[in-house]
């Protein structure tokens, strides 16, 4: 599963963290992100549309890679799996969730914000983590500090990533991709302005070259 996470994250480079506010948004939103170059999506369970959005994407846009985010416990992991998610992301780690992740066929990217979180995950075999909330828990300085004691661990920093700091994060040797919601402008989504979402996605991708 580490290899699957690596393949997924390295290919994605930027993982949009999508909270679906209206069920009808999911396909135009996913299409706009894909047109902008972002084809791997984390759909959060922060709205009631999250699981239905995953089912819709798996059925209608099988060429995209769709995972579930904001998974807090084993029950939510099971729901994500049943909906057809291809990967699962959590904001933090508990022993219960990490254990459920080991038993699930899906790769789990657990959230970590401290050396203790990393040690807990590491003890169970996890080597890939979402650094969350990245900017709040130390940002690039934290990544540099974690590199010495945890050389085999790689991160998807998320939380506070913006066009202005994206490159600095991506330049860290222990970063495999970054996540964030900055390209999902709330006002643009509310008025169905998918061209703006596509432009923001394309601008983010352009920063990587
Ligand atoms: C997440 O849960 O991953 C965050 O909401 C994403 O953080 P951002 O909104 O600061 O990009």
From TrEMBL:
Reactions accelerated catalytically: 2-dehydro-3-deoxy-6-phospho-D-gluconate = D-glyceraldehyde 3-phosphate + pyruvate
InterPro entries hit by this protein: Aldlse_KDPG_KHG, Aldolase_TIM, KDPG/KHG_AS_1, KDPG/KHG_AS_2
Organism encoding this protein: Azotobacter chroococcum NCIMB 8003
SUPFAM superfamilies the UniProt entry points to: Aldolase
The entry's keywords: Carbohydrate metabolism, Lyase, Schiff base
EC number: 4.1.2.14
Gene name of the encoded protein: eda-2
GO terms of molecular function: 2-dehydro-3-deoxy-phosphogluconate aldolase activity
Protein name per UniProt: 2-dehydro-3-deoxy-phosphogluconate aldolase
Pathway: Carbohydrate acid metabolism; 2-dehydro-3-deoxy-D-gluconate degradation; D-glyceraldehyde 3-phosphate and pyruvate from 2-dehydro-3-deoxy-D-gluconate: step 2/2
Assembly with partners or alone: Homotrimer.
Family of this protein: Belongs to the KHG/KDPG aldolase family.
Organismal lineage: Bacteria, Pseudomonadati, Pseudomonadota, Gammaproteobacteria, Pseudomonadales
Broad class of enzyme this protein falls into: lyase
């Amino acid at each position: 599963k580490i290899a699957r996470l690596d393949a997924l994250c390295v290919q994605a480079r930027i993982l949009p963290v999508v909270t679906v506010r209206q069920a009808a948004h999911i396909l135009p939103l996913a299409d706009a992100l894909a047109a902008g170059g972002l084809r791997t999506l984390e759909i959060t369970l922060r709205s009631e549309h999250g699981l239905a959005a995953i089912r819709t994407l798996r059925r209608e846009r099988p060429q995209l890679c769709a995972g579930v985010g904001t998974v807090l416990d084993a029950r939510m992991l099971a729901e994500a799996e049943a909906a057809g998610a291809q990967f699962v992301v959590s904001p933090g780690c508990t022993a219960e969730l990490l254990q459920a992740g080991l038993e699930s066929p899906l790769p789990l990217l657990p959230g970590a914000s401290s050396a203790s979180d990393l040690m807990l995950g590491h003890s169970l075999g996890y080597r890939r983590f979402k650094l969350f909330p990245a900017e709040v828990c130390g940002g690039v300085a934290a990544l540099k500090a974690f590199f010495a004691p945890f050389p085999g661990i790689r991160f998807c920093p998320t939380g506070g990533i913006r066009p202005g700091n994206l490159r600095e994060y991506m330049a860290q040797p222990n970063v495999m991709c970054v996540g964030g919601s900055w390209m999902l402008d709330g006002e643009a989504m509310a008025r169905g302005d998918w061209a703006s979402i596509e432009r923001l996605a394309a601008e983010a991708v352009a920063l990587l070259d």
